[in-house]
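seq as requested:
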Amino acid sequence: MLRKQEDDPDTGELLGTGYDDHAAAVTSTAAELHCAGIGHRLGFQTEIGHRLGSGFVQRADLVVRAPEAGVPVLLVEVDRRTEDAHELVARLRR
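struct tokens:
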């Protein structure tokens, strides 16, 4: 389970937003998707680069391949401040 999000009492900024928290959020999102029947446990990859026409490489936090669930390829950018994994699963089911 991810640790509780806390704000700095002086600045109001979110504390604990390092790479370890982000990696945990990506992993928990993959677990949530898998538990909802979206994607095989070996069908998830993290930090996968996609070369754009300009040559720039854009990285997706999570790539899911789940053709059996009607998801040929799903690129997920994880940002816990806007939508949690439960909300993502509900939206995908709709």
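Helices lie at 19-35, 85-93.
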